[in-house]
């Protein structure tokens, strides 16, 4: 991602963001509210079109007008702050819908995979529950399983614990931690500093639409130079 | 007194349908009004003329026939209006600007036109027969009138669909997009199934409104219950029959539509909780 600019109307949100994520790497994006973190992450799967700059995902140039957005999104999973499960379908159906209807895979194998994913996110027995019957943390883990069912190359997490109470934050973070350990490429927008320090290969600090500073966690937290970063960290830690 | 009992029994139908005490109270109130108007009319007529109730009962089979046509027209108009209204509503949320604009225009036109005027236009503009290949299909008055009623229903359904689709949080679209669903897939599998639940109560409400609007077709000469009541009254030629007879007709519609209204309200309450 190089020099990405994006405005909503007259309001500039991204002012020349550049970042790079290697395969199998986990990066965390931190920064104050309104820094453009959510917009940034939505650019990666073309949910938000960019104004200028370039983004390349797995060899696909996103600014290319001939880009097959659906093909891109099959390879990039995303988990949202508000889970956004489909309320009219059970947990298992939520996981199975996209592989069956988007990837056109055979139902039986998808179901086996979906059940395995429910076990993986430790929700065995909740397969036939509707989202409304699950807690926030459980819903978020179903949402993660739903994304994983597409067997993506990259997973995007947009403040996935921000709407949860402290108890359930742990279960969701544990799930993401396992994914990171399994070698999944992850881009995580988060306010959980302890978690970021633990799982991230590199941390990016963004403010007002630019990357202020970045580096491996140990270095980043110990020796950040920019006053904006210091101020932010002193408020949050 | 035996006759009175029969009338009362009719009005208690909604009670058995919905089991709500309120329904019974409303039904009884209507029966009381009907009974009162019958006794007033009877007093005016004097004892020489055949009893009002006997006259009503005599014409009941004919009235029932007419009422059956009202119901048939309401079913058909609702079915046609729903199918076309659904398409029109989806047009209103289309990504293609021309489709969206035309769908909006058509919807607004038929939604803001008086039903009776649309009925007149359909009676005047539709041919009395249409040729499909070699067969000629006759279009009787009631069929044209049904089409006329279907037009405002279509426009109202279109608005229901548009409103329901737009009431689904945009996050649902976003989640589907992120899972690589195409737009039509998203609409069909994720958005519309959630809309159906929201649309059902207002859709039932629309049906009740349509049903009580079917007597409008009497103005354009369809032999439905309202027309037949007029015919009955002119053949009887007894002015004291006017009030009870129309009240009797009203009761038919009430008994049919009131349970629908109660069920709609009950559904609304149930959906509101979730």
What does this structure look like?
The complex is a heterodimer of chains A (237) and B (274). Helix content of chain A is 39%, strand content 22%. Chain A is α/β, with parallel strands linked by helices. In chain A, the strands form three sheets. Chain A has a six-stranded mixed beta sheet, with helices on both faces. A three-stranded antiparallel beta sheet of chain A has the order 2-1-4, with no helix packed on it. A two-stranded antiparallel sheet of chain A has the order 5-6. In chain A, α3 (91-101) packs across α4. The longest helix of chain A has 16 residues, at 166-181. The mean pLDDT of chain A is 87. By secondary structure, chain B is mainly alpha-helical. Chain B has eleven helices and two strands, in the order ααααααββααααα. In chain B, β1 and β2 form a beta hairpin. In chain B, α4 (52-92) packs parallel to α11 (242-273). The longest helix of chain B has 41 residues, at 52-92. Chain B is flat. Chain B starts with a helix and ends with a helix. Classes of the chains: A alpha/beta (237), B mainly alpha (274). At the A-B interface, α2, β7 and α3 of A face α8 and α9 of B.
